[in-house]
Amino acid sequence: MDKQTQLNDVIQGLRSAISELREVLIASTDGLAIAHSHGASDPNRVAAMAAATLGVGKRISTTLDLGEMRETTVKSANGQAFLYAIGGKGVLVLIAQSEANVGLINLEARDAAARLEAVL
Amino acid sequence: MKPLKLVVAGPVAAGKTTFVRTLSETAVVDTDEVATEAIGKASTTVAMDFGTLDVGGVPLQLFGTPGQDRFDFMWEILSEGALGLVLLVHGQRPAHFPRARDILEFITSRIPVPFVIGVTHQDLEPVWRPDEVADYFGVEHHQAVGLDATRADSAVAVLLRLLALIEEQEGASVADAPGPTPSAGEPGA
After folding, report:
1. Which residues in B lie closer than 8 A to residue A31 (C-beta atoms)?
2. Which of B31, B48, B65, B76 to mutate to test the interface with A (most CBs of A within 10 A)?
3. Cβ neighbourhood burial of A13 (10 Å; 0-12, 13-18, 19+)
4. Which residues of B touch A55 (CB under 8 A)?
5. SS in 3 state form for chain B?
6. Cα distance from A22 to chain B (closest Cα, Å)?
7. Structural domain harbouring B94
8. Is residue B174 part of a domain?
């Protein structure tokens, strides 16, 4: 199975597992969209913002001696964005509505990030 | 004295991160990641560089921006509250000048602050000289300065030029700054 298919499978798997997800996206650490769910609003923009956010998060982690940075979340009035580091290779982004099952999202996404690390 | 915020912007590989690293007296906060595209170097800034220094008693905060277009939201975020702009262009990459002009326009339309254009890689040949770059951008010659971003004295000279312009604009006096450009420390220079 080629890489793109594998990536899309992981994305599809997440969408199937979690109904409250609006979008799923995979970005490179330098902000390019690698794969994304159908109907994603602006993958290039989201990829750049996710990479920038993760980059800052990594810097906070190293500067404060917190070890390897893993995840960060943007919680807003009408939704939330969950960002997971894919090893040192990329960012997995899940965008969900406000009343989403955070426990399930984290469970599924952390697992997905680990699998994606092997693919990338 | 309240720190003076300066933004460092410009196209990819102009030397922005290097500039901030050369100047900063404190540990630089930077966000370099492996570049997946061929941009002429291995890493690229994805969010920002942050450094601080003191120039002649004036505490400065430098905010370096990413050069790639897709990070333009960072240009806007980082420009907030800035009192001056250093626009860096690679002296051997005139193909990037139009991009640099767009960046200059983008930032100064949001924050109309004094700016200096730093033309990097002056040690290489052939290279665009500051006067030529000033003409290209349609600015006065004193607004474009040749720069070796790896050298502190060269980098400070760019800041002094910018501080002089800021002073001029504010009509306020800033503490006398020692350095290679004697006129820069005088109010209204």
Report:
1. 46, 68, 70-71
2. B31
3. middle
4. 31, 33, 46-47
5. CCCEEEEEECCCCCCHHHHHHHHCCCCCEEEEEECCCCCCCCEEEEEEEEEEEEECCEEEEEEECCCCHHHHHHHHHHHCCCCEEEEEEECCCHHHHHHHHHHHHHHHHHCCCCEEEEEECCCCCCCCCHHHHHHHHCCCHHHEEECCCCCHHHHHHHHHHHHHHHHHHHCCCCCCCCCCCHHHHCCCC
6. 22
7. 4-151
8. no
SS3 state of residue A64:
coil
* Closest by Cβ to B74, choosing from A47, A52, A59: A52
Verdict on whether the full-model pTM lies above 0.95? no
Look at chain B and report how many structural domains it folds into. 1
* A90-96 vs B43-55, strand pairing mode: unpaired
Q: Which of A28, A29, A30 to mutate against chain B (most B CBs within 10 Å)?
A: A30
ipTM, 2 dp: 0.89
The order of strands in the sheet holding A79-86 is A33-36, A21-28, A90-96, A79-86, A71-76
Residue B64 located in a structural domain: yes
Do the domain assignments include residue B167?
A: no
Residue B188 — very low, low, confident or very high, per pLDDT cuts 50/70/90? very low
CA distance A112 to A100: 18
pLDDT, tens digit, 9 for 90 and up, residues A28-72: 999 999 999 988 789 999 999 999 999 999 999 999 999 999 999
Number of separate domains in chain A:
1
What pLDDT is attached to residue B169? 87
What CATH number should be reported for the domain holding residue A60? 3.30.450.30
